[in-house]
Design brief:
By secondary structure, this protein is an alpha/beta fold. It has one domain. The protein has 10 helices and 12 strands. Strands 1, 3, 4, 8, 9, 10, 11 and 12 form an 8-stranded mixed sheet that branches. It starts with a strand and ends in a 6-residue tail after the last strand.
């Protein structure tokens, strides 16, 4: 089983002292050339700070994000699960994981980065700024990544629980063994509505519970059965989807 997560715009600073990016240490080594191509274009973009901020949707006060991109190849690295911040990753709370939980997360969690493609939770990466829809010089991320990421994910055996946003799913499809997780709530008449505000938090909390359980589920039915005992309402949704039903208030 792998749990496929989206990245976040925000990243934690710092890393292991004296460390730098080593392409060979990243999961899915078949993506190395594609990763390096994006890195070259991203570095090229940083040559013009104004153009870089426009492309990345940044304000002048966020110039530090451009500086991150300018030096990411020589910046210190840390595990991807610790690098990303934000609502989803706050719910995961990697800092409080036990050694066994961390080990299980490194075996099962994959984060889909716009810069690196899918990376393992334990892969050492630097801080950077790049979104799925950023326009790089001479390169469109969707067309650049889609085929190669799809092939890489389809080569991974076992159940894949896809928690990515639709935007990141367009950068590469999960395998035929995947199931897409939707966060929904039930209205007064029982109609299910997709959540937006609490979507990321619920994904983070659910993923942390999966990691803490240490169970490597091989089937959707196993996952659903576990969820009941873990206090979640996880049910079959549309074809190829699971609905995680959460209350509208107090999530």
């Amino acid at each position: 089983m792998i749990v496929l997560l989206p990245p976040s715009e925000t990243k934690r600073d710092g890393g292991v002292r004296g460390s730098t990016l080593d392409w060979s240490q990243l999961s899915f080594p078949e993506l190395t050339e594609r990763r390096q191509s994006v890195a070259v274009r991203l570095t090229e973009l940083t040559g013009d700070s104004d153009a870089a901020r426009r492309a990345l949707g940044l304000s002048v006060k966020q110039q530090f994000e451009v500086e991150r991109n300018r030096s990411f190849k020589t910046a210190p690295v840390m595990p991807a699960l610790e690098r990303y911040t934000g609502v989803l990753f706050d719910g995961l709370d990697a800092g409080s994981m036990t050694p066994s939980e961390r080990s299980f997360a490194h075996e099962t969690v994959v984060v889909h980065s716009a810069l690196f493609g899918p990376v393992g939770a334990g892969d050492p990466i630097p801080a950077y700024r790049l979104s799925h829809n950023t326009r790089l010089p001479g390169l469109t991320l969707k067309s650049h990544w889609r085929r190669s990421v799809t092939e890489a994910l389809r080569a991974v055996e076992g159940l894949q629980l896809d928690l990515r946003s639709e935007a990141y799913a367009q950068l590469g499809a999960a395998s035929p063994n995947s199931v897409y997780l939707r966060i929904v709530t039930e209205g007064p008449e029982g109609k299910r509505v997709a959540l937006s505000h609490f979507n990321k938090k619920s994904k983070g909390v659910f993923s942390r519970a999966l990691i803490s359980s240490g169970i490597n589920h091989s089937t959707v039915e196993s996952l659903i059965a576990w969820s009941r005992g873990a206090g979640f309402q996880l049910e079959h949704g549309a074809t190829g989807e699971l609905d995680l039903v959460v209350p509208h208030v107090g999530v």
